[in-house]
Amino acid sequence: MDNITFPQLALSPKTLQALQDMGFEEATPIQAEAIPLIIEGRDILGQAQTGTGKTCAYGIPLIEKTDPEATYVQYLVLSPTRELAIQIADEMRELTKYQEGIRILAVYGGQPIDRQILALKKRPQIIVGTPGRVMDHMRRKTIRLDQLNGIILDEADEMLNMGFKEDIDVILADTPDAIQRILFSATMPAGILELTDRYLHDPVHVRIVPKQMTVSNIEQFYIEVREASKIEVLCRLIEAERIKLALIFCNTKRKVDDVYEKLQTRGYSAEALHGDMKQLSRTRVMNRFRSGEVELLVATDVAARGIDVDNIEVVINYDLPQDEEYYVHRIGRTARAGRSGKAYTFVVGREIFDLKNIQRFTRSNIVCTQPPSLVDVTETRVSDLLDKTRDVLAAGGLDSYLNALEQFITDLTATASDDAFYTTADVAAALIQQALGQKLTQTNEIESVVPYEEMIARKKKSRDRLSGGGRFAADDADRDFQDALLGGDAMPDDLDDEPKKEKKKRKKKLEPGMTRLFLNVGIDDHVQPAQIVKAICSSSPVTGKQIGAIALYGRYTFVDVPADAAAQVAKGLSGQKIGNRPVRAEVSAAGKNAADSDFVPNPRKSKGDYDMPGKFGKGSRPGHKGDFKKHSKGGKKHGS
């Protein structure tokens, strides 16, 4: 398709002037296809990744179609997070710069609802909001959708992943039948197709998926590292790359706080951003990051949605993303507005195989690189100090310091022993060491790991040696070998550091009306609770709010689901892939008796030593130790 300019789309002069002020001349592919169709009134199923201009793709036609004289809600935009809702509303307000009478309001959780109710009394025609807060206003009758002209679901797949399907159904059911419905999603899972079939009328599928899913001007690297060395590698990267503005992604809120605190302790300008923070704090953090007052922002995937900062130099995946799509979303935060950028991903142990899947999915080359050495870091720091020294020399005004230095050298020479002689260069070197000494002492040695290519060769030899030991022995030994070779224990440090009192809390009894399911995937497969929730919500009618406790162990997981839907959940999960491993799900063979007992499998047991319900029927489990272990109470096998 030839490049389409905005004047070719027959937009109003006021909208064209606003776009020109925003620096936009040519429409992106998704904008060129979607804008005419939305203006025409067609329902749209749009598929495009982040950074393709989705907001303007629907925002421009909404502005064009909005009646500024109306005093009711004409269009509703649903967003998965408050940050994205704020970003959408701000961008649409820029589009109305020369339009009089069009009012746009963002409503989201974390902001006092009374303030939003006052704003709603000003009769906005366009509302952008998160599903939960929109439903809250609907219950209060402060938002009415009976005269709605259209509804837009932005990042619909992410809303389903977060368990908002039930909320979306309620909202859509309360809208007039004949309205225009527009759905944008980066991916097309079963849940999205179900929404499309149920609510969209003869939709046009607008699909913009470039051959290379990641931006070409992003240099992508990965570093194989042990979990315990991650913070040291991160600090070395910051120093060696002279990073001034970076976004650092972690998979959990706890990890975000941990990394943020460690960076602060080392003297870096850093802030944390995750869902447990109050909206006022999140807004303050984002403003500081946008202004450059804070150089490093540590965030979770969900909290980072809506971050719209053009000059981010580097994205660092401190934790490997849980989904391939998350990788695309993450690194798309750099190299914006025609700039170039870099992305670094830390890889621990068998995560190397997940990284290979990401490379296949994105059709991009992620280059293996080594962490900066202490020599690299020291040279960078000294070079930066000398650059500043040049500026000081050029500015002049050093006479008083020169006198003091000359006197110091005279005194030093007079008191030195016969074999000691110090030049001016010696004194300058000592001053450099003193100036950088504190930072230099904060660098530690990084424990080396074996490169991936060498691991493959050793792995083959190990398999050859173990080939006579039976399939299960070889598989278990192979797992142990990879762990030892590429990062030690496969247990994530979030669980490894878990206090004993927290482990006791996991010995939970089943809530009334719940059933416990057994899944044959666990920590060793790098499975996260969010992946399990996503898989359940996408393959069954169960919502995220209905899912109970999730207990992850080495090679398996227990999850509590509503009893009346347990069979359907198990059926829907079975055959899916979580953590790149096919799932087998079944009602826990120990039933409620096991859930009500004090027994909880120990995730720190050696491999082949787990108590696993029904893995091989009611008999023994082949492996390193042979049979199931027995309980101290009554010698009863778990799963018999």
Task: Give a description of the structure.
- This protein has 640 residues and is of the alpha/beta class.
- It folds into five domains: 205 residues, P-loop containing nucleotide triphosphate hydrolases (Rossmann fold, 3-Layer(aba) Sandwich), CATH 3.40.50; 154 residues, P-loop containing nucleotide triphosphate hydrolases (Rossmann fold, 3-Layer(aba) Sandwich); 66 residues, no CATH class; 34 residues; 126 residues, Alpha-Beta Plaits (2-Layer Sandwich).
- It contains 25 helices and 23 strands.
- The strands form five sheets. A seven-stranded parallel sheet has the order 5-6-4-7-8-3-9, with helices on both faces. A seven-stranded parallel sheet has the order 12-13-11-14-15-10-16, sandwiched between helices. The chain has a four-stranded antiparallel sheet with strand order 18-19-17-22.
- A hairpin with a 4-residue loop joins strand 18 and strand 19.
- The longest helix is centred in the middle third of the chain and has 22 residues.
- The relative contact order is 0.08.
- The C terminus is likely disordered.
Q: What is the CATH domain class of the largest domain?
A: Alpha Beta
End-to-end gap? 64 Å
The CATH superfamily label of the largest domain reads P-loop containing nucleotide triphosphate hydrolases
Radius of gyration: 29 Å
Helix content: 40-55%
- Output the CATH topology of the largest domain: Rossmann fold
Uncertain parts? 468-507, 590-640
- The CATH architecture name of the largest domain reads 3-Layer(aba) Sandwich
Widest sheet: strand ordering? 5-6-4-7-8-3-9
Average pLDDT figure: 80
Shape: globular
> What is the count of DSSP helices, taking H or I runs of 4+ residues?
25
